[in-house]
Design a protein that fits this description.
Elements (H helix, E strand, L loop, with lengths): L3 H8 L4 E4 L4 E3 H17 L7 E5 L4 H13 L2 E4 L6 H10 L4 E4 L4 H7 L7 E4 H5 L17 E6 L9 E5 H15 L7 E3 L6 H14 L2 E3 L5 H10 L4 E5 H11 L10 E5 L5 H9 L4 E7 L4 E5 L14 E2 L3 E7 L2 E2 L6 E7 L5 E2 L3 H7 E2 L2 E10 L5 E6 L4 E3 L2 E3 L1 H8 L5 E11 L3 E10 L7 H9 L11 E3 L13 H4 L10
Parallel strand pairs: 1-10, 3-4, 3-5, 5-6, 9-10, 9-11, 11-12, 12-13, 26-27
Antiparallel strand pairs: 1-2, 7-8, 8-19, 13-14, 14-15, 16-17, 16-18, 18-21, 20-21, 21-22, 23-24, 25-26
């Protein structure tokens, strides 16, 4: 297939590609800038199939470098800039990267993680840009089976794994999303999620494949996000639940303009009170389910079911399939089991992890480790991670369901639930909450609230107040870390 940015620059050269606070560039200009950087990368020795790691904030320059690596034929390895130096150093070594490139903001961090790594070359983006342009053998075509990126999982259980994503994975992710959400002439996507994350990277792919302008934010700001929707013509945005919550708080009594047509909501199970507020305000929320291993979206709600099936992640994108498996067989509608998916957007495997690959991918089906069910109409409902399941008296208890109820209480800002040992029931739920500023905490009051919405076996044994929820660098709740806050009687 033709190099995507090259082809887009030929098809719609004058169309706006990227808008930032300080710049607006067309596809032709972006292509010209990317070609310059590709030749500079070539001049320092970056070649086809080389692994190139980078650390950067969201920026137009980072967008250019992503495309320049593809033009050279190198494999991009974005490092999560929220990780510690030790974690970044481990990923740099594990990926076999020959190069580490960072923006000026992370120059000192780059030097820190480079200690003892004589086989890796280190430059800032500015230093690359100071290099002469060499005659380079650039990629005018993309082989859809070739690796494009290696993106590391968040590593909530042990060391993260490098997910290999091919050009084909990224292509079919973008194509499947468009077939589901549609594409309109006036569409403009606000990218305020990190570009080191598969969610942000997928927006860059859509940008050049669709010929759709994106607005790029360095970091998420709810007031600015709402302003872009009201004043800058943004029609689509990708968010997680906490981002949506903050946008609604800033929105107040206002409603979004009719031109705004898609709030793509991912990142795991969503609190029901938050969805209810969106339904009341007729906000076009499209729940989606995906993983790094599926190049972002795998299942997404379609427009016509936006309100009828609120709470569902929808049906698989056109190139994909989904099953629910338990005890080695497909389960019936309504029965909860492991979510298993298949499609052209699914990774061929993990970098240098054949055992993990063979365990997760069988006959082309990816066993996700997530628990969910399909309703009678084939819509997927995601319940929780399999490893977080609590079995109490033989009954399955899903922490995300209890957390969703807790978040409906007016004093609760964040919630986390784990299972603790119990002599009678085997395990029982134990809840932790972060209380909103200025609100009073009462365990009994919160438990009384939960009794209205939860069966007795799902009711937390205790609700404990903590100041800060343990989250990883991707802001995902690390439930296993909650056990560190348990009082003495509940410690194994």
């Amino acid at each position: 297939m033709p190099n995507w940015l090259m082809q887009r620059a030929k098809l719609t050269p004058d169309r706006v590609a990227v808008e930032t606070e300080n710049d607006t560039v067309s596809f032709l200009t972006l292509y010209q800038q990317v070609t310059e950087i590709a030749r500079q990368l070539w001049s320092i020795g970056v070649r086809e199939n080389d692994k190139v790691a980078f650390i950067s904030r969201n920026s137009l320059e980072l967008v250019r470098f992503y495309h320049a690596l593809a033009a050279v034929g190198a494999v991009g390895v974005p490092l999560n800039n929220r990780l510690s130096a030790g974690e970044q150093s481990w990923q740099l070594e594990d990926s076999c990267a020959k190069w580490l490139i960072c923006d000026e903001h992370f120059q000192s961090r780059g030097l820190e993680i480079m200690k003892g790594k004589s086989s890796v070359s280190f430059l800032t983006m500015a230093q690359v840009r100071d290099q002469p342009q060499a005659e380079a053998r650039l990629q005018n075509e993309f082989d859809l089976d070739k690796p494009c990126t290696i993106i590391y999982t968040s590593g909530t259980t042990g060391n993260p794994k490098g997910v290999i994503l091919t050009y084909g994975n990224h292509w079919w992710s973008a194509a499947g999303s468009m077939l589901n959400l549609g594409l309109e002439t006036a569409d403009k996507w606000l990218c305020c999620v990190p570009l080191f994350h598969v969610s942000g990277l997928s927006i860059l792919m859509k940008n050049v494949i669709y010929g759709m302008p994106i607005v790029l934010q360095e970091k998420f700001n709810p007031r600015e996000a709402n302003r872009f929707i009201y004043e800058e013509g943004v029609t689509m945005i990708s968010v997680v639940a906490n981002m949506l919550k903050r946008m609604l708080e800033d929105l107040g009594d206002r409603k979004y303009p009719e031109s705004f047509r898609c709030m793509l909501l991912g990142g795991g199970p969503v609190p029901q009170p938050l969805l209810s507020r969106c339904v009341e305000k007729r906000i076009p929320v499209f729940q989606t389910y995906g993983l790094t291993e599926t190049a972002s979206q795998m299942v997404t709600l379609t427009p016509e079911f936006m309100f009828e099936k609120a709470g569902s992640a929808g049906k698989p994108l056109f190139p994909g399939r989904v099953r629910i498996v338990g005890s080695g067989k497909d389960l019936n509608p309504g029965e909860a089991g492991e979510i298993v998916v298949k499609g052209l957007n699914v990774t061929p495997g993990y970098w240098r992890r054949p055992e993990a690959t063979n365990k997760a991918i069988r006959d082309g089906w990816l066993f996700t480790g997530d628990i969910g069910y399909l309703d009678q109409d084939g819509f997927l409902y995601v319940l929780d991670r399999r490893k977080d399941l609590i079995i109490s008296g033989g009954e399955n208890v899903y922490p995300a369901e209890i957390e969703s109820v807790l978040l409906g209480h007016p004093s609760v800002d964040e919630a986390g639930v784990i299972g603790v040992k119990d002599d009678t029931w085997g395990q029982v739920p134990y809840a932790f909450v972060k209380v909103k500023d200025g609100f009073h905490f009462s365990e009994e009051e919160i438990l009384d609230y939960c009794r209205k919405y939860l069966a007795k076996y799902k009711l937390p044994r205790h609700v404990q107040r903590i100041d800060c929820m343990p989250r990883n660098a991707s802001r995902k709740l690390m439930r296993r870390k909650l056990s560190d806050f348990l009082p003495e009687p509940f410690i194994d």
